[in-house]
């Protein structure tokens, strides 16, 4: 049984970071996770695509989610490799970015569950603590799904 449609969601091409697919490890990890979220034959969400939902607290400004689980309606944010290095090098910047993004996602979620999946355990632990310590964000589920390096 499928979850109800997610309202005014729009499926659009996301940011490829200006990299070819074979050089874009973040996008490859995202595709790896998307195949688990919406397995064939109905999924996964196409590579490089994201869902946009309107943020009711910011006049409908679009907020992106990397995926939407069709069976449950759960919304996903997927963080690939390299986040831990950014957290170590720029902890205050990453904290502010995560809080801003998560706050916007909660506002746009319409009460649906939001899950953040990380390729790196340290990054997942950082996000979990940050969300637990930030009012309104403790309800976000944070997961760690390791990815075996290929090639």
> Oligomeric status of the shown chains?
single chain
The parts where pLDDT drops under 50 for at least 5 residues are: none
The helical percent reads 25-40%
Radius of gyration: 15 Å
Gross morphology is globular
Gross CATH architecture: 3-Layer(aba) Sandwich
Largest sheet: 4 strands, mixed
Number of helices: 4
Query: What is the domain tally?
Result: 1
Question: What can you tell me about this protein's structure?
Answer:
With 151 residues, the protein is an alpha/beta fold. The chain has one domain: Trna Endonuclease, Chain: A, domain 1 (3-Layer(aba) Sandwich). It has 4 helices and 7 strands. The chain has a 4-stranded mixed sheet with strand order 4-5-6-7. Strands 1-2-3 form a 3-stranded antiparallel sheet. Helix 4 (121-133) links the parallel strand 6 (114-118) and strand 7. Helix 2 (83-89) packs across helix 3. The longest helix is centred in the middle third of the chain and has 18 residues, at 91-108. The radius of gyration is 15 Å and the shape is globular.
Pick out its properties.
Trna Endonuclease, Chain: A, domain 1; 151 residues; alpha/beta; three-stranded antiparallel beta sheet
Helix and strand layout, with pairings?
Blueprint: E1 10-13, H1 25-37, E2 49-55, E3 61-65, E4 67-68, E5 75-79, H2 83-89, H3 91-108, E6 114-118, H4 121-133, E7 141-144
Parallel strand pairs: 5-6, 6-7
Antiparallel strand pairs: 1-2, 2-3, 4-5
What's the quick description here?
The protein has 151 residues and is α/β, with parallel strands linked by helices. It has one domain: Trna Endonuclease, Chain: A, domain 1 (3-Layer(aba) Sandwich), CATH 3.40.1350. The chain is built from four helices and seven strands.
């Amino acid at each position: 049984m499928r979850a109800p449609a997610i309202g005014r969601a729009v499926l659009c091409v996301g940011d490829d970071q200006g990299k070819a697919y074979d050089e874009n490890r973040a996008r490859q990890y995202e595709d790896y996770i998307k195949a688990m979220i919406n397995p064939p034959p109905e999924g996964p969400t196409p590579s490089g695509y994201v869902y946009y939902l309107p943020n009711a607290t910011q006049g409908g400004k679009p907020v992106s989610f990397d995926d939407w689980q069709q069976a449950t309606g759960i919304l996903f944010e997927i963080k690939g490799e390299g986040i831990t290095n950014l957290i170590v090098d720029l902890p205050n910047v990453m904290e502010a970015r995560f809080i801003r993004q998560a706050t916007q996602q909660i506002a746009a979620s319409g009460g649906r569950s939001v899950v953040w999946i990380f390729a790196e355990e340290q990054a997942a632990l950082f996000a979990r603590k940050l969300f637990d310590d930030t009012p309104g964000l403790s309800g976000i589920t944070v997961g760690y799904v390791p990815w075996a390096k290929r090639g």
